[in-house]
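Holo prediction — GFB.
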Amino acid sequence: MELTSKIYIAGHKGLVGSAIKRRLEQEGYNNLVTRTSRQLDLRDQRQVVRFFEREQPEYVFLAAAKVGGILANSTYPANFIYDNLAIQTNVIHQAYRIGVKKLLFLGSSCIYPRNATQPMQERELLSGPLEPTNAPYAVAKIAGITMCQSYNRQHGTCFISIMPTNLYGPSDNFDLESSHVLPALIRKFHEAGLNNRDRIEIWGSGKPRREFLYVDDLAEACLFLMLHYNDSEIINVGTGKEVTILELAEIVKTVVGFKGKIELDPTKPDGTPRKLLDVSRIRALGWEPRYDLYRGIEHTYSWFKKRYLNL
Ligand code: GFB
């Protein structure tokens, strides 16, 4: 991929796509193509056909997706499976049709079975039943992986699939109903402080363990893999470290400076008990993350105060 190559970032307004765009711009890539979802509805096959025929991108980062936290996934399972299947089917197929040189598809760590051996190696894919709270999303992502592998096999394309762990950072969704846990906690602690509240509630038992990767680290990994990885085999991207949700809440509390108590709301679901990626393969290729959790949360909290609250 040259600095002048025509690169389409699908989903450039989202958490992942915006970080990939920042990273490519920093590195001097100067021929980026983007469209907002208003300009181009990736679920609409005809619009996607026209867009690819007109723009003829050489490289594609497929970061457009319907994403959300545990509650959004369980409340809108039809949206999660339909939107993701439609978006990725259209983009992957048109990328093949116009002869895109390489495409990077973003999966998720929730493609692995609920009771997968931890840390989860890439070979755990399809080795057991999925976590029910996000199975429709996971099934769509697994279909995307299988599509990339099938097109590589039948058509000789170079479509790679990477599996990031739970992500966070600037441009995340901070809506309390639909967001993931980390942005939700930042917002809850911040607002509790403003309103002089002496406690906040977190969902579930506080015991599930999660791994969190700062999105700028993911963007760096995406560029690294786009340049150096050509295998059909999926590859994990994470930190290899996990915390309990309660430990996470304590860190966010410290960063935000909240002085009150943390309470649990056991009526809300826990989801999968553990979701830690085995990151030996990407490490062996020479990539590792730069941000530790505390620093990543500090950066995200300052973005939230500067940008999100002024939107
Ligand atoms: O981040 P999260 O929504 O999704 O929740 P998953 C992680 C854990 O944090 C769950 C708890 O055990 C939640 O019960 N939690 C505590 C909270 N307080 C809160 C809160 O205020 N908001 C939220 N959202 N959670 C998602 C999948 O699973 O992971 C997606 O649903 C996606 O498909 C994503 O793959 C990476 O980690 O459980």
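READOUT: The two ends are 35 Å apart (CA to CA).
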